Amino acid sequence: xxxxxxxxxxxxxxxxxxxxxxxxxxxxxxxxxxxxxxxxxxxxxxxxxxxxxxxxxxxxxxxxxxxxxxxxxxxxxxxxxxxxxxxxxxxxxxxxxxxxxxxxxxxxxxxxxxxxxxxxxxxxxxxxxxxxxxxxxxxxxxxxxxxxxxxxxxxxxxxxxxxxxxxxxxxxxxxxxxxxxxxxxxxxxxxxxxxxxxxxxxxxxxxxxxxxxxxxxxxxxxxxxxxxxxxxxxxxxxxxxxxxxxxxxxxxxxxxxxxxxxxxxxxxxxxxxxxxxxxxxxxxxxxxxxxxxxxxxxxxxxxxxxxxxxxxxxxxxxxxxxx
Amino acid sequence: xxxxxxxxxxxxxxxxxxxxxxxxxxxxxxxxxxxxxxxxxxxxxxxxxxxxxxxxxxxxxxxxxxxxxxxxxxxxxxxxxxxxxxxxxxxxxxxxxxxxxxxxxxxxxxxxxxxxxxxxxxxxxxxxxxxxxxxxxxxxxxxxxxxxxxxxxxxxxxxxxxxxxxxxxxxxxxxxxxxxxxxxxxxxxxxxxxxxxxxxxxxxxxxxxxxxxxxxxxxxxxxxxxxxxxxxxxxxxxxxxxxxxxxxxxxxxxxxxxxxxxxxxxxxxxxxxxxxxxxxxxxxxxxxxxxxxxxxxxxxxxxxxxxxxxxxxxxxxxxxxxxx
Lengths: 323, 324
Prior knowledge:
The structure holds two protein chains of two kinds. In chain A, about 45% of the residues lie in helices and about 10% in strands. In chain A, helix 6 (about 155-170) links the parallel strand 3 and strand 4 (about 170-180). Chain A has helices at about 5-35, 50-55, 75-80, 85-90, 125-140, 155-170, 185-190, 215-230, 260-265, 270-280, 285-310, and strands at about 65-70, 115-120, 145-150, 170-180, 180, 185, 205-210, 235-240. In chain A, helix 1 (about 5-35) crosses helix 2 (about 50-55) and helix 5 runs parallel beside helix 6 (about 155-170). Chain A is α/β, with parallel strands linked by helices. In chain B, helix 1 (about 5-20) packs parallel to helix 6 (about 150-165) and helix 7 (about 210-225) packs across helix 11. Chain B starts with a strand and ends with a helix. Chain B is globular. Chain B is α/β, with parallel strands linked by helices. Chain B folds into two domains: about 5-180, Thiamin diphosphate (ThDP)-binding fold, Pyr/PP domains (Rossmann fold, 3-Layer(aba) Sandwich), CATH 3.40.50; about 195-324, 3-Layer(aba) Sandwich (Rossmann fold). Chain B contains eleven helices and 14 strands. Chain B has helices spanning about 5-20, 45-50, 60-70, 90-95, 100-105, 150-165, 210-225, 240-250, 265-280, 300-305, 310-324; strands spanning about 5, 25-30, 55, 75-85, 115-120, 145, 170-175, 180, 195-200, 205, 230-235, 235-240, 255-260, 290. Classes of the chains: A alpha/beta, B alpha/beta.
């Protein structure tokens, strides 16, 4: 690899490293906040899937749109959301991303292209098609990226959305984050096909499999799909193979996992893999440690700020029903 | 006076909004090349092109979801759900996504989607293609619900729905498509305003869509018996113009609500509950709901005719109320 390429790859890797650490840090804190009773309802964490969301979102540019699921803290942070506003929303604070009206499952920040986290499985796939239909109609070249899980490929909206996107050649990139479990059930129990990317053939669109724990690989694969969409060639289905290191939601201890499975995947932790790659590229261990400390401080500061924010005024519940 | 049909009122409203606003885009099943199964979009693709009037697969979830996404990016989509009953296959999009997206994001997005749905009984379409589907959505906050009964109302309310920046479900009654009425001298109609369509001092009949016309026929029967009925068409179910109904009941002290559907969870039940809570003292007799029977809607002409409230059944309810 020429030196300039090494430099560019290193810079990119370090940016991803910080963003992935931020996501990991936020998710670890949210897990603790739950234990402390600071979060209501439920929450769905994404530790172990950081390379997938960061690698894809790094392939986007200003004006592109991203939609994701209730396991969406990572994707929204990957787009560039402020950690304090994410924490604030998860705690239901007035200065949270959605003024405390959305919560953990509905993080949205349209200022940065994060058009919503959706809590009904599959519901946002047709909406993502609509976002990109508008690009074509308006004649701009914005691409719409849509994250969802392996379980989503079994719901009707998946079929309707991919079919329409391919028919109309909308600039949509469908990213299936296959974390091996649909809620509490392994893929083998719910899905007759092993490679979910194969399902793209039904819609005459490319189906691509990528190692979802390798941020460089994810970024390259997403980059190709985004370029394809932007140049008018239509949608792509990416299957990003990854692993959910925690249970489905806070009430799930994930005891259904076969013994040893978690350890195998922890050995392939995306942050660990990236760290190794960066060392190989010549980054000093000290620098990585410094960056870790910097991000940890950022997370702690964001959490402290968000905790200090006031709750919403009760009267605000009547606001923003209507335009 | 220039008469148009209810169907033409809808087509004209769509054409005028397509003409007025480049952001207006139409899509749905068979609405383009075929002009719609009820021909309400006839000629629009020819005139405005396939970029603005698009045929879709039979995919109601995709139709509604795509409209939501397009609206958020600033388009003004008007979509068709062929038979209103098909709302059942895209209920998540209509009930969970469309009305709540703005609220859950605390106003970060506006979802100005107009959904046209063909509603109602009387045409022999059976139990799955004949229901008064507006009632399914009464308990969902964030949707406006429009139910025109005349060509003029159909025209003006559709234009108002398309211009409204909020989600609007616009129900077209299948058995009114061929009815005719004036457009030229018809005043513009705003969403949320009822119409007093016949004045009277003895009893108030509130009825929408097909039932508005039957209530008027019942009023004529009653007039022959010396009873003057006031007939009110709410025209929109959300927001509901309770003020106009209350003003009428203040005068007549008697109320009949006529709907096509069975009673539970209906707009009539909601209206009567509100009126009883706020204006109980205005009533000299218990309000009566006249509706379809408590059965699914049957197919046979004989059975369906018996199922639907007739002018005579409405008049009979009025007589009972007056005799109370």
